[in-house]
Structures are given as structure tokens and as C-alpha cells.
Amino acid sequence: MAAVVKYPGGIEDVQVFTDRSSSDTPDPERFRLAQADAGEQDWRAWGPYLSERAWGTVREDYSEHGTAWDYFPHDHARSRAYRWNEDGMAAVCDDRQTFCFALALWNGKDPILKERMFGLGGDGGNHGEDVKDYWWYEDSTPTHSYMRWRYHYPQAAFPYDELVAINALRGRDDTEYELVDTGIFDDDRYWAVTVDYAKASPTDMCILVTVANRGDEAAALHVLPTLWFRNTWAWGLPGGDRVPKLVGEGGRLVGEHWVLGQILLEGDGAPTPLLCDNDTNAERLWGLPSRSPYPKDGINDHVVAGADTVSPDREGTKGALHYVLDVPAGGQRQIRLRLTRTAPPPAGTAAT
Fold first, then answer.
1. Which of these, 26, 87, 131, 215, has the minimum number of CB atoms within 10 Å of its CB?
2. Strand stretches in the chain, DSSP E
């Protein structure tokens, strides 16, 4: 069985599994595993190595008394650069987490983009830490040459405040107040978002985003495939102030990194590239000057509020291809993307 679909860049046939008439011939995935184990082809170089949540974790906690949930809450995550790891939905990265790719969504009603899963910290959930979204990892090969992920996103405004308030009133002997309990999925008014990944090579990935409108009325969904570099430059380390570059060119994003080389994200149709920097919005959080005039939450503020918070030069360290999909009741739309390394790093570059 071969998947035959046309992706940006001319790839028309991405073979992940193949029916074999002879059991003596290894299937393609076993062949990829053998190549990877022998060091011939690094099929594991890119994979689902990105966290679902980096906010509220011990890794990012610099508080005096180890209060990680309070020190880095969910409300900070869209505006505050992580130091040690990143997070995202349907996310992939390289094995050094030099680049990160994930999907962001907006239903036109939420106060923020849906860039990461929402949940309660240990001091907010009546049974401790408690995630409040619904998603599934549906399939993956051992080398991640094929992966499938699914998420159900409400069409009504996500009830962030309601989930926090009602769970705070419940004790240990009470059941948890879940997203489905709010009635937000009544009448099936939600988006079923599926992402399929298929590798054409260890560093060439085809991505199919399928958006299905489960509701009984036509609706619009903003879809933002997002590419960014992990922030390694803002921490005052000797020799660590080198900043990579991401540029929006037409309907694609082109990145340059001294370790990774050149990476390209391109999509079909005519998406709008939006660029900002993966740097903290210190003005929003603490009333202090920000390192960048277009910080980490710039794309969020631009899409949700129409603010002038993305780079007019289409340059930065975080970028998204902005699609607005109008989908009829019971219908679906698809976006085809290609994420590939188009040039290696300069010879002799040290991996950091």
C-alpha cells in the first residue's frame, strides 16, 4: 500500500508501507530500521520528541521555593520563552530540538490561539495535575516514518475560566469537572483535526492536515502550521548569543541555523506567512522592555486581536503559515505541507 498524493515540492509518492508477495522480502519499515541501526540513514533524526507541556514543569522552574505551577503558569506560556524545552500540538522536532514544528488553531472565538494543551496544575485540580483537552496518538512506525494524531477542538469558546473555577470548588472525593461536562460538545459542534506525517527521507517530511466540521452549520477555522527555533540565545551564556533566522517568502518559511543547516516549510494554496521572535514578552508579563519588538506572542495577538505584532519584514525565529478554512456542515478541508532540510550545516560546525 502506497500513499499517492501531491505535496509541495513535487513529491507525489510517499511509500510508508508496501504489500509484499514474498515474505522473504523485508517491508520498507524493517529496511529503514536496519539502515538506522547500522548508522547508514538516521531515520530517527526527526520525530515526536516535543513535549505536550513545558509550562508548570520543574525543568523551567527557577522559583525560590520550587513552586513550578505558580512560577510558570499556562497564561505565561504563549508569551514567555522556554529555556530547556518546548511544547506544542501534533509536534515534531529534530533530536537536538534545534527546530520545532507544531499546529496552532483558532476557532474565531477563543481569547488565545490553541497552541498547546490546557490543564490544571497540582494546586488547581481536585485530583492533582489534570489535562482538559482531548487528543489521540493514533499510529506511528518505530522510525516515525509514518505518524497520525487527532484532536477535537470545540467551535464555541474554550471554557478556560469555567474549568478552573469549578474544579477549584471540588474536593478529593468529588469527580473531576471535564471539558465534556461543560456541554461544549453538545450537537457535535467541534472540529476533528487529524495530522498525518510521512517521511520521504530522514529529513524530508510530508504532512497532511485534515479539518473536519462535525457540526450542523458551516464554520471557519484558522489553521497555523508553525515552525520555530528553540531559544538558545537569550540566557547570557558565553558564546551562546548567536541567533538563527527564519524568513517568510511567499507561502513558505525558510530557516537558517548553524547546526541544522537550512530548513523549509511550504504549504499548498496561498497561506500568509507571519513572523515574530521566540523571545519573552517581558512588557506583558512584568512591565519591562522586551528583547524583541515582535516577541513570542506576536502571532497570537495579530490573529486574535488584529494587533501589529508580527514583523513587517517577515523575519524572526518563530513563524506560521496562516490559513483560514471555510468548511461546510459535515464537510472537511485539507492542507498539504512539506517540511524538509534543504541544505546541510557548514562543514566543521560544532553541534550544540
1. 26
2. 46-47, 89-94, 99-106, 119-120, 130-131, 135-140, 146-154, 190-201, 204-213, 219-229, 245-249, 252-257, 261-267, 272-276, 315-316, 318-327, 332-343
pLDDT for residue 3 is more than 50: no
CATH code of domain 28-343: 2.70.98
**HSE-up of residue 3 (Cα within 13 Å, Cβ side):** 18
User: What mean pLDDT is predicted for residues 197-202?
Assistant: 98
Domain boundaries, the chain: 28-343
Q: Identify the three-state secondary structure at position 140.
A: strand
Q: What is the DSSP letter of 14?
A: B
Contacts of 348 (CB under 8 A, 6+ apart): none
Q: Which three cell numbers stand for residue 231?
A: 531559544
Which of 6 and 54 is assigned the larger pLDDT? 54
pTM over 0.90: yes
The pLDDT value recorded for residue 346 is: 79
